[in-house]
Known about the structure:
Distance between the termini: 52 Å
Bound molecules: S-adenosyl-L-homocysteine, iron/sulfur cluster, FE3-S4 cluster
Number of helices: 13
Strand order of the largest sheet: 3-2-4-5-6-7
Shape: globular
CATH class of the largest domain: Alpha Beta
CATH topology of the largest domain: Rossmann fold
Amino acid sequence: MAQIISEKEIKVQRDFLYKLKEYTANFCAENGRPPFAHTETYGCQQNENDTERIRGILEEAGYEFTDTADNAELVIYNTCAVRENAEQKVFGRIGILKHIKESRRDMTIALCGCMVQQEHITKKIREVHPQVDLIFGTHALYKLPELLYRTLTEKGAVVDIENSDGKIAEDIPVKRDSDSSAWVSVMYGCNNFCTYCIVPYVRGRERSREPEKIMDEVRALAKSGCTEISLLGQNVNSYGKDLDTDIDFAELLRMVNGIDGVERIRFMTSHPKDLSDRLIDAMAECGKVCRQLHLPFQAGSDKVLADMNRRYTKEQYLSKIEKIKARIPDISLSTDVIVGFPTETNEDFEETLDVLRRVRFDHIFSFIYSRREGTPAARMEFVLSDEQIHKNFNRLLEVQNEIAKQNNEKYVGKIEKVLVEGESKTDKAVLSGRTDTSKIVNFRGGYELIGKYVDVKITEAHTWSLNGELAEK
Ligand code: SAH
Ligand code: SF4
Ligand code: F3S
């Protein structure tokens, strides 16, 4: 059973937070402004959620936030280790910071997250990038007040990548960007050990938060006006297995569904092998649970699935999809796909395309396999050349783009309820929001609509988004 980090340990951190407040107050007295902090997040929603907690701690400590590293006293990169390019990006960034820091000695550089939870990476950073002042892993996030205070007051780098597996830190301050949508972690870690994946090594074993803690967080969010809740975990269907309770993920969904003020509930990620009928029933029966499911299949060939240690076959996956479609006919499905797993042949890859054509996902996240040191797949020999893998990857995109566009065309002429998220990235006069099925909709409207639900008539379909206009009331 997951242990909650003790009151005593949390109090130690509160005391350090107090010391940090004194530090930032002194800074303010000397400089006429508070110190600036800049954070950047790589990787998945879990990391985004961690950054929100980092920002919560920094805000309480008296930092203000800035959008660029150039004028920040404190720069924190929350890193991802899932693929090599995620790591490379961070190495590039700390290289750039080195030059900035040469003329800005007072700058503090911190790295945290999944990448630095790997010893060989931390060793390399310490050897090659002495400009990094603080390194803390995914298990040490709650200790940030202490670690940051020590970094600011002691000589030399501070490193904490200890693995405190099994522990959960509750009641850490959170600073969220959006007032209307929030991520809420329900569990941490993963026990699945898919052979390509680094996550179980850097995030540790599965541990669930107590249902009451989750409910308290969602109730508080709803009270503050937040209406869309996304429940997070690497494998949410395992929720509760490590707790002394009968509450499983299906039950948790029903509980959250009962909270006043919540209008939309999303969740990710589900592992196909654990997707239960109970969960499908809960999804179908809970009015606030969105008609959307992210169900990664990774590969279509049974041989590759076995080599990946996914513990389901193509047919088992497809039959779960059939069940879901039968129960929730207009459900929007998305998935993750890996192309170029070491043992994947061209015939195996055809099976992946076959799954795409049969399921007709609305959206896929596709990745070229990336070798992760320390995982079983890292020792497997490649059967396909790099060139062939890239060719297959491009074919996958072609097939999927066509399907996505056709799926989107079905929306044209319909009126959809959209939660307005903000201005569109490309045109500030245009608002952008999401349907219940997680489709991005762009339409003209005033920014006072941000955070609200509006009816939008869909006028045009693209591969990645829909265009529309506000529907007459
Ligand atoms: N727990 C989630 C997501 C984990 S990481 C799940 O199981 O679905 C997100 C995605 O990254 C995975 O679904 C997988 O498609 C991809 N991924 C993980 N390791 C990878 C690797 N070594 N190379 C390429 N893609 C990888
Ligand atoms: Fe990685 Fe597999 Fe766990 Fe997902 S289920 S985090 S892919 S090991
Ligand atoms: Fe990356 Fe860690 Fe998420 S490795 S994908 S940030 S759990």
